[in-house]
Design a protein that fits this description.
Length: 680
């Protein structure tokens, strides 16, 4: 029987002050949250170092959030801050001897990201590297005497600085790309040895003996390459020779050495057209093998593996998305049946770290965002070790649960449903469909409230929030993820419509007050809803979404990913089909008020996608449309002012059309009351 024990941190009760009276979750509450972003267990299992993300005050203008470093004593449950103030850092690691915590950041006078070390017995962070280009990632050598790291290097050439000063600043697109190279830094001598000369290293790991490095290497430093063309390689530390371990196809994510160095566990796609890196493989560590030699230990598994590690020389631990839940399992080399160690429905997490029989990870639940958790594999005790948001106990939240229903072709579709606060059975409520991106992603039954994910904000304003994992989502196996191949936006969108109909038939939802929204692929669905299916939707919010599949495919930074794992045909092979799956084709006569929002620097779905949708709806639609640009933002909003604007503006749009009796020929005011006094 699994159970959760909460350990409250000393001194956090003061955070309750702004929310002691019962209230609902508001957009401003997002900026009160303190969320754990990383958690690492010390080698002896006695301490957990973790980083705590604090929202950057909007009064400071644009910029990234701040992070604090804390150290938790596992036995006592007591935590103390190590680094506070206006800092940003990432990639926490313990030194092999457990005497210091390291991270990548900028401290003191450093202008580029370096690796810093901080002794746990006191003292300020000290730089361990001095890399002119800055460091992207790093890992300790097993002896603790060296660090391997990845940094950028130019292949040479470029316009001389004198000419640049004269105005000769032409940029050559996708030529002369920087390499992502591997270096080994000797902490005693202070010298760094370059291990690779070309290509792009995206992840790497020392062998247990420190004589080899397992590396994921792509041909070029391009986003598409990082998605589709990474290969597993072995680098011999003594000779510097790089040899391909295996000719793995398509997507590749987690990897790990066995403790004896004889085997490699890795998580990848089953083939080039698999949208999800979600299958667990094990292979010997001898280089030069065919992919057919690797054994798939999750063949036929109705789930998606997230990350893998080794329990011992014969046993692999792995975490998996399974429908809307996360499980932790183990499997032994040569065996077929896994052992489930942590059942789904307890907590949501993605990666974990292990020390002996203890695991630690950042977990969240439907009622609480990321905190530090531990799981004792022997006692099967799951423990929430921190609580940085006790004020949430005084917030009324809507009930949240897994939902399952049948699509029109009989396929089971799962998702997450949040009820309105103070829901009364027999009463019909307005509905917001939140559509996840990807589509090779899934909504899990955990904390579902962010600036771009309305969750408890909408529930507090009287909405059902429906979050379906339509076909082509992850978490249901390879066949499910491939279900949209060669025909995007058709059957997969019917899964959304069928879920809506199910909720209407249950007497829960008002069919005349249904809205939809989402970002990226969710934005595509929202544009598709406002055009092709306009008769079903009373309001739509399209964020960084696709409107024209032809021009999107011509301009995106992931053209090969789009081809291999989704369309599997090039546009010229069936222009009519590609255009038929484009919302702009159906803009004429749209009756759905549509709010379109986009970051002006988006390389994934370029901003003209939103401009095309806006222009076509403006000229040919029969409902209000508004286009909002976010300067300096890309494929999603990183800066807090833009996040707050999105959260308030989109809810205003839904409220105007779904809760009032407003004439759909009008629009809500473009000027917002941001309520900044609520953030003080």
């Amino acid at each position: 029987m699994f159970f959760i024990r909460c350990v409250l941190l000393v001194g956090l009760s003061s955070l309750c002050t702004p929310f002691c009276a019962q209230s609902v979750f508001s957009p401003h509450a997002l900026f009160k949250l303190q969320q754990v972003s990383e958690a690492i267990l010390s080698p002896d299992g006695e301490h957990i170092a973790y980083s705590l993300t604090l929202e950057r005050p909007i009064s400071e203008g644009k910029g990234s959030d701040y992070r604090e470093l804390h150290l938790l004593h596992v036995a006592s449950g007591k935590s103390r801050p190590f680094i506070t103030g206006k800092h940003t850092f990432r990639s926490l690691q313990w030194s092999p001897d457990g005497k210091q915590i390291s991270f990548i950041g900028k401290m003191g006078m450093t202008s580029r990201n370096q690796v810093f070390g901080m002794p746990i017995d006191g003292g300020a962070p000290q730089p361990l590297t001095d890399e002119a280009a800055g460091i992207l990632s790093y890992s300790w050598h097993p002896t603790g005497k060296k660090l391997a790291y990845v940094a950028l290097r130019s292949p040479g050439g470029g316009t001389p600085s004198g000419l640049v000063r004269l105005g000769f600043d032409a940029e050559i697109y996708e030529e002369g790309l920087n390499y992502r190279l591997l270096f080994v830094h000797d902490l005693t001598s202070g010298r760094s040895l370059q291990m690779t000369n070309s290509g792009a290293i995206y992840d790497f790991a020392w062998s247990p003996t420190g004589d080899r490095i397992l590396a994921q290497i792509a041909p070029q430093n391009l986003v598409d390459d990082s998605y589709m063309f990474k290969k597993l390689n072995i680098i011999d530390f003594s000779t510097g020779k790089t040899t391909q371990l295996i000719d793995n196809p398509g997507k590749l994510t987690s990897m790990a050495w066995s403790p004896d160095g004889n085997h490699i566990a890795f998580v990848s796609a089953v083939d080039i057209s698999d949208p999800v890196s979600g299958s667990l493989y094990i292979i010997s560590s001898e280089p030069g093998q065919s992919f057919s030699k690797a054994r798939n230990y999750t063949d036929g598994f109705e789930g998606s593996v997230k990350t893998a590690s080794w329990l011992d020389e014969e046993t692999v631990l792995y975490a998996s998305d399974e429908s809307v839940d996360i499980t932790l399992s183990s499997i032994r080399i040569g065996k077929k049946k896994r052992k489930i160690l942590l059942e789904g429905g307890q907590v949501i997490f993605s990666t974990f770290q292990r020390s002996e029989e203890m695991l630690t990870f950042v977990g969240n639940t439907p009622s609480h965002p990321g905190e530090v958790y531990t799981f004792d594999m022997e006692s099967q005790e799951l423990t929430q070790q921190t609580d940085h948001n006790p004020w949430l106990q005084n917030i009324q939240m809507g009930r949240q649960e897994k939902i399952s229903y049948k699509a029109r072709d009989g396929l089971r579709i799962d998702g997450v449903l949040i009820y309105p606060v103070n829901y009364q059975e027999g009463q019909r409520y307005p509905l917001l469909n939140y559509i996840h991106g990807g589509p090779e992603s899934c909504v899990k039954n955990g904390w579902a409230t962010r600036y771009s994910m309305w969750g408890q904000i909408a529930a507090g304003q009287g909405y059902f929030v429906f979050m379906p994992n339509y076909r082509a989502s992850s978490g249901r196996g390879v066949a499910y993820a491939k279900a949209d191949h060669m025909d995007l936006g058709d059957e997969e969108f019917n899964d959304v419509l069928d879920g809506m109909d199910y909720l209407v038939e249950q007497g829960m939802v008002d069919n005349d007050r249904i809205g939809i929204g989402g970002g990226s692929y969710g934005g595509y669905f929202s544009a598709w809803a406002a055009t092709k299916h306009t008769d079903r939707f009373a309001a739509s919010v399209v964020f960084v979404g696709i409107s024209n599949q032809i021009s999107k495919r011509n301009c995106t930074d992931i053209p090969y990913e789009d081809y291999h794992v989704h369309w599997r045909i090039w546009t010229y092979e069936d222009v009519d089909l590609i255009y038929d799956r484009s919302p702009v084709k159906y803009a004429k006569g749209s009756k759905t008020p549509t709010l379109v929002l986009h970051g002006k620097e988006d390389p994934r779905v370029i901003p003209t996608q939103s401009l095309e949708l806006y222009r076509q709806l403006k000229m040919h639609g029969d409902a209000p449309v508004r286009l909002v640009w976010y300067p300096g933002e890309g494929h999603g909003n990183r800066n807090n002012p833009a996040q707050l604007d999105y959260a308030i503006r989109t809810m205003d749009w839904f409220n105007y059309y779904l809760k009032g009796n407003n004439d759909r020929s009008e629009m809500p005011s473009k000027d917002l009351d941001y309520g900044l006094e609520q953030l003080k």
